[in-house]
């Protein structure tokens, strides 16, 4: 069963008509906070910064070194943590992104020599996270690519794609391909909800509160959000809080589990433990121990 998304995502394109692909360095206080989609494949590396990434129906934290490969028309948003939006903060976000369009490769893609690449491009329609030695080598190749031009740059791009096509060090973000269907009549509603939730998830958020952002009744909003994201708003909010807790458990050894529970937006430790076990498959203590033994 394919994951079909009909929510609003601003359509963007990044490749000049004169190019086969485009590589871009990102350097700003925070990443673009707009839920969007585009026709190009995208390989995105976070060099500096932390936050939450929304890819299709998946919600996950990101940190420096996060490397994600997306197929065309998968709506996505790398939402920097709230501290990056503070005018007084000295924090910065840096990234490196490669865009390419499969149409440029279409005369070759069905040839025998490109069989592995064709399989890779099908996989990334589900969204792909890369890790291990594959990620380390890919990051090095991407950094080098910035300084290459002409045929050398094309050869480097194919080195990257060849490496990824042969690797088993990846996680797919969805069980099925994600297809985004643009509806001109839609607005930026989901974008509004995602950004609001990312800012406020540490506090109590009521249905009345969030539905008022879209000028809807709580009942209408609940129905709308579930239809557009395939999950209830309460599930989405819990997921957002759990992903934040995972990040703290893995990186903040000095904080107690109780502190992490309340900082992640949960009211009671018992509910936090229950929800964490449901979403992650282990207790917060077991999750923390897993990282302490690495």
From TrEMBL:
Protein name: AraC-type DNA-binding protein
Keywords: DNA-binding, Transcription, Transcription regulation
Gene Ontology terms for molecular function: DNA-binding transcription factor activity; sequence-specific DNA binding
Record-linked Gene3D superfamilies: Homeodomain-like, Jelly Rolls
Organism in which the protein naturally occurs: Parapedobacter luteus
Pfam families: AraC_binding, HTH_18
Ranges where the HTH araC/xylS-type domain occurs: 191-290
Stored InterPro entries: AraC-bd, Homeodomain-like_sf, HTH_AraC, HTH_AraC-typ_CS, RmlC-like_jellyroll, RmlC_Cupin_sf, Tscrpt_reg_AraC-type_HTH
Keyword tRNA-binding: no
